[in-house]
Automatic annotation (TrEMBL):
Descriptive protein name: Tubulin, alpha 8 like 5
PANTHER family: TUBULIN
Cofactor or coenzyme needed: Mg(2+)
SMART domains noted in UniProt: Tubulin, Tubulin_C
InterPro entries listed in its UniProt record: Alpha_tubulin, Tub_FtsZ_C, Tubulin, Tubulin/FtsZ-like_C, Tubulin/FtsZ_2-layer-sand-dom, Tubulin/FtsZ_GTPase_sf, Tubulin_FtsZ_GTPase
Keyword terms, alphabetized: Cytoplasm, Cytoskeleton, GTP-binding, Hydrolase, Microtubule, Nucleotide-binding
Domain Tubulin/FtsZ GTPase, chain residue ranges per copy: 60-201
Catalytic activity: GTP + H2O = GDP + phosphate + H(+)
Predominant subcellular localization, coarse grouping: cytoplasm
UniProt record similarity statement: Belongs to the tubulin family.
Length: 329
C-alpha cells in the first residue's frame, strides 16, 4: 500500500509504504532490499563515503528520510497481529535499516477469523498504527488513486536471460497482455481511460512514441472517446536492478504501467460473487449467530456489499456511455 504525500514547504513528493500481514511484510522486506540496491544504500542505512549528506542527488528521499548523521530510514510501516514474520525483519540482514517504532506487532494472530481480527485483536493496535502513519505523512492530504491496474514487463527468468532481449515495442505490447497484470481481468473486455508508463534502461523517446502509436492502432486495445491521448510516459535511463541470487534476470530495459480501465469491474464482480456465497452459507448454517451479530451492531457486511456493487456499476456506466454521442455544456 502506497500513500503519496506532498510536503507543505517544498515540491518534493514522498511515497510511504504500509506493509500489512504476513504477505505484506515479506513482500515489503524484499522491496526494501531492492530499493537499497537501487540507490546504493547499505543494509545499515549508510551510503558509501563518496556520497555526502544532503548532496545534489536526493532522489532517494522519495522513499527514505535522511537523518543528520547520514543514515537513511525507510518511509515504511510494517504491521502484523503476530510477531513471527516481522521478527524476521528485526533479526535479518536489514535489521538496522528500519526504525524500531515502525515495526508494529501484536501478540497473537486472528486465526483466519475476520471478526476476531477486526473487532478484537485488530482494535488493540489500530490506534498505534494510525499514530505512526500520521507521523510519517505529517498529516498532509494525499491524492486518491482509484483502482489502478499495475502491469510489469518483461518478467524473464534467469535461465532465459541470454535468449530473450525484448525491444521497446515488445515490452510495451506485453504490458497490455492479461498474463503480465497484477490483477486478474481481461482488459480487452473494457476500455482504458488513462495509462501511465515508466520505462527504465536502454530506452529512447523515439522508440516509445512508435510503440504507443502502434498500440493505438490495435482494435483489441480501446480507449474511451473523451480521453483520446490518455498516455503519460516517463523514462529513467538507469537499467533495472535485480536482487543477487533472485529468480528474475537482469534485463536491458523494462516498463511498469499503471492504467485505469473499466475491465477492473471483473475483479469486483468476482469478489461480489464470493461475498454472496459466504453470506448464503452463513445464513444457512449460522442463522441465529448472524442475527445475534446484527443486533449487536456487527452489520457492516451489507454496507460493504453495497459499496462493491457501486464499483462495478461505475465501470459499467463508463463503458456504456463512452460509446454513445455526448455533448459538453
Amino acid at each position: 500500500m502506497l500513500l503519496v504525500t506532498e510536503e507543505c514547504y517544498s515540491l518534493q513528493r514522498e511515497c510511504i509504504s504500509i506493509h500489512v500481514g504476513q504477505a505484506g511484510a515479506q513482500i515489503g522486506n524484499a522491496c526494501w532490499e531492492l530499493y537499497c540496491l537501487e540507490h546504493g544504500i547499505q543494509p545499515d542505512g549508510q551510503m558509501p563515503s563518496d556520497k555526502t549528506v544532503g548532496g545534489g542527488d536526493d532522489s532517494f528521499n522519495t522513499f527514505f528520510s535522511e537523518t543528520g548523521a547520514g543514515k537513511h530510514v525507510p518511509r515504511a510501516i510494517f504491521v502484523d497481529l503476530e510477531p513471527t514474520v516481522i521478527d524476521e525483519v528485526r533479526t535479518g540482514t536489514y535489521r538496522q535499516l528500519f526504525h524500531p517504532e515502525q515495526l508494529i506487532t501484536g501478540k497473537e494472530d486472528a486465526a483466519n477469523n475476520y471478526a476476531r481480527g477486526h473487532y478484537t485483536i485488530g482494535k488493540e493496535i489500530i490506534d498505534l498504527v494510525l499514530d505512526r502513519t500520521r507521523k510519517l505523512t505529517n498529516l498532509v492530504p494525499y491524492p486518491r488513486i482509484h483502482f489502478p491496474l499495475a502491469t510489469y514487463a518483461p518478467v524473464i527468468s534467469a535461465e532465459k536471460a541470454y535468449h530473450e532481449q525484448l525491444s521497446v515495442a515488445d515490452i510495451t505490447n506485453t504490458c497490455f497482455e492479461p498474463a503480465n497484470q497484477m490483477v486478474k481481468c481481461d482488459p480487452r473486455h473494457g476500455k482504458y481511460m488513462a495509462c501511465c508508463l515508466l520505462y527504465r534502461g536502454d530506452v529512447v523517446p523515439k522508440d516509445v512514441n512508435s510503440a504507443i502509436a502502434a498500440i493505438k492502432t490495435k482494435r483489441t486495445i480501446q480507449f474511451v472517446d473523451w480521453c483520446p491521448t490518455g498516455f503519460k510516459v516517463g523514462i529513467n535511463y538507469q537499467p533495472p536492478t535485480v536482487v543477487p541470487g533472485g529468480d528474475l534476470a537482469k534485463v536491458q530495459r523494462a516498463v511498469c504501467m499503471l492504467s485505469n480501465t473499466t475491465a477492473i469491474a471483473e475483479a469486483w464482480a468476482r469478489l461480489d460473487h464470493k461475498f454472496d456465497l459466504i453470506r448464503t452459507l452463513a445464513s444457512t448454517f449460522l442463522g441465529n449467530f448472524v442475527c445475534l451479530l446484527h443486533f449487536r451492531g456487527v452489520s457492516h457486511y451489507s454496507g460493504c456489499r453495497y459499496n462493491m456493487s457501486l464499483c462495478v456499476l461505475d465501470s459499467v456506466i463508463i463503458l456504456k456511455y463512452c460509446t454513445m454521442p455526448y455533448h459538453f455544456m
